[in-house]
Amino acid sequence: MLIEPLKLRNLTLSPPLVLAPMSGVTNSAFRRLVKELNPGSVGYVISEFLSVEGMTRGSPRTKDMMRFRPEERPFGIQIFGYDIERMRDAAAMVQDAGADVVDINCGCPAPKVVRRGGGAELMRQPDHLRQIVTAVRKAVTIPLTLKMRSGWDEESRNCLEIAMMCEGEGVEMLTVHGRTRAQLYRGFADWKIVGDVARAVKLPVCGSGDVTDVASAQERLSCGAAGLYIGRAAIGNPRVFSQITDPLNTPKTTAQQAATILLRYRDLLLEDVPARAAVGKVKQMASQMGRGNLWRKAILRAMTDEEVMQILQLAATGDDSAWKVAVPNSADDEVASCVDSCDAFN
């Protein structure tokens, strides 16, 4: 599938298929994994969204989340918050870190984010959002982008108003997720409104929501979007980008390939985090990638890195005994917790 490149000032997003920012998911290891699995099919990757409170207060964890490798470029860092000065200072920190783009999160629907005034809550305060955008624009010379929802709810879908304001304040690319904040991740994204925004402004507008395969990508692009953000689909199918750009040569991932991919993800994680932390991340991805495979439950019950590696190595060879590997049954609560956390993306 041929998709025209997207120009973002001096950057060329080719193809304009973007690994969308996802809290707790799009760490450096995951970003690198997706780029490895989809050579030439991922035009741009973005960090997990970063709290400007943590950034400006010197949180070590937040500093770690800002790190990236050269092979991830073009690379953007997404920031969220409410305080104008902290948003401004955090944007400057993004630029100082060497990122190619700073992105403002204006769409996160999570209660813990909107209660603090960030994410989609900013769409209910357009005057305050304008001040944030103005301050951030003055603080950085790198491209500034913004991601938002269609609105707070069906009665207040104001993304057109927000888009025109952002264009006037120097935002260089917009992304619209076609759901309202009230929808969370339920129902279906409205791509008509993505097209409406694309026609209302001169800057490039990307769309987000329900892009899962080549057919849905073609349908979404037909609305007028300049690019597509792919998030949740990449957790369960990290090869989705190649399956969109080159479907004939990128068949469905087999159970053995899925296990091999998870092993590679584990290796990449161990470059950045301790083994204990890597186990949780591998489980998170396995809960989605492993659907329908016998070894999925064994992975989710595993307690150590050694157990995870043993199960996946067996699964990668096609050995059906992988799911029978003895692991403590006391991990059932952790299984449920992991599955619940990942199901929140569905």
Notes on the structure:
The structure is a single chain. The chain has 16 helices and 10 strands. It has 346 residues and is α/β, with parallel strands linked by helices. It folds into 2 domains: 6-249, TIM Barrel (Alpha-Beta Barrel), CATH 3.20.20; 255-343, no CATH class. Strands 3-4-5-6-7-8-9-10 form an 8-stranded parallel barrel, surrounded by 7 helices. The chain has a two-stranded antiparallel sheet with strand order 1-2. The longest helix is centred in the C-terminal third of the chain and has 16 residues, at 255-270. The radius of gyration is 20 Å and the shape is globular. Residues 329-346 have low confidence and may be disordered.
Name the descriptors:
346 residues; TIM Barrel; 16 helices; globular; disordered C terminus
Quick overview of this protein structure:
This protein is α/β, with parallel strands linked by helices and 346 residues long. It folds into two domains: 6-249, Aldolase class I (TIM Barrel, Alpha-Beta Barrel), CATH 3.20.20.70; 255-343, no CATH class. The protein is 44% helix and 15% strand.
* Average pLDDT taken over every residue: 92
State the low-pLDDT regions, or none: 329-346
- How many helices? The count is 16
Q: Give the DSSP E fraction (strand runs of 2 or more residues).
A: 15-25%
Write the layout of secondary structure elements.
Layout: E1 6-8, E2 11-13, E3 17-19, H1 28-37, E4 44-51, H2 52-56, H3 60-66, E5 75-80, H4 84-96, E6 101-106, H5 111-114, H6 126-139, E7 144-151, H7 159-168, E8 173-180, H8 191-200, E9 205-208, H9 214-221, E10 227-230, H10 232-236, H11 240-245, H12 255-270, H13 275-289, H14 296-301, H15 305-316, H16 332-343
Parallel strand pairs: 3-4, 3-10, 4-5, 5-6, 6-7, 7-8, 8-9, 9-10
Antiparallel strand pairs: 1-2
